[in-house]
Design brief:
CATH class of the largest domain: Alpha Beta
Number of helices: 12
Keywords: Isoprene biosynthesis, Lyase, Metal-binding, Multifunctional enzyme, Nucleotidyltransferase, Transferase
Helix content: 25-40%
Structural class: alpha/beta
CATH superfamily of the largest domain: Spore Coat Polysaccharide Biosynthesis Protein SpsA, Chain A
Number of strands: 19
GO molecular function: 2-C-methyl-D-erythritol 2,4-cyclodiphosphate synthase activity; 2-C-methyl-D-erythritol 4-phosphate cytidylyltransferase activity; metal ion binding
EC number: 2.7.7.60, 4.6.1.12
Catalytic activity: 4-CDP-2-C-methyl-D-erythritol 2-phosphate = 2-C-methyl-D-erythritol 2,4-cyclic diphosphate + CMP; 2-C-methyl-D-erythritol 4-phosphate + CTP + H(+) = 4-CDP-2-C-methyl-D-erythritol + diphosphate
Strand content: 25-35%
CATH architecture of the largest domain: Alpha-Beta Complex
Shape: elongated
Pfam family, one: YgbB
Distance between the termini: 29 Å
Length: 389
Amino acid sequence: MSSQTPHGPPFSAAALIVAAGRGTRAGGGLPKQYRDLGGKPVLARTISALDAHPAVRQIVVVRHADDSALFRGACPATRAALSDVAGGASRDASVRAGLSAVADDIDVVLIHDAARPLVSRAVIDGVMDALHSYDGAAPALAVTDALWRGDGTVTGTEDRNGLWRAQTPQGFHLDRIRAAHAHHPGGAADDVGVARAYGLSVAITQGDEANLKITTAGDFARAARFLEDQMDIRTGNGFDVHRFGEGDHVMLCGVAIPHERGLQGHSDADVGLHTVTDAIYGALAMGDIGTHFPPSDPQWKGAESHIFLTHAVDLAAEMGFTLTHADLTLICERPKIGPHAAPMRARLSDLLRIEAARVSVKATTTERLGFPGREEGIAALATVTLVKA
């Protein structure tokens, strides 16, 4: 196995995802790459995993000619440029179609199975590092089980020494693998076979058991178990207080509620939105509203608080997190929150970009105790959950 020390300038990379197969052995009625895995299509997870690598500048998905609508429905947002092309009658024909769509200024191409959605940064790094010393590189796992020959009964054994279980992505210098495919007559099992037939050197790099290829129905359950182990689930809390002052309404969760006094603050003093915003920043370990929007900066004086919340939601998405739940409690004697809870919940749902069923807005009093009980202001407490899978 290659253990080359990485050297030289970093490569620019394209990810070529082979997704033109039918996947009938997996069942389920849809091609396996479009079936659900933990709330997202398999292909969406595969695209996102490769897009997360900083060297990947372009992603080309080779799909079946009949799957354009399925592809559009499965596409996640990406940092890298994403495009799709129709595949051919065989795997190597599909790869050639994808290679023709890769930009000529790309250094290396990572050819990956759409049905391997759990590929890790470490596996990709291993391939990329080896390409400083070899024409190609591919991850694999050493065969550790005994190997038999047989047909119902054991008729012989095979030596497992030197045998490997191949994985993807299989990486190559773009010009060399293009030349290898142009020269190949077709029928290779994978791109390593095409490369070796052309005389290219291909390093074996470290594979990963989680980088399984979904082939049968049972593989979905295996992938789901690995996915659970990989999930990054975070909970954040927010707390905020604003005092009453002059005014004829209060802003709560983006809704103007008539009241004989208003809330005071540098912005529009929406204590509900401020609290949820701080909860998101807290889950990300990214400070609070004051960190990103200092009250000493005059441009935020009187600003609408949805600006702050939108920034926090965008930041979570950029870091790969999905907001799955928000729970807000407002603490005050007046105004009464109940009559306004539904529109507040709807507005919060819109700003958080999740369905209202995942948003809770409720209120309580302090039984006339403390500053909320004396109607000097409103406090709020929020909890949010973020998931990266």
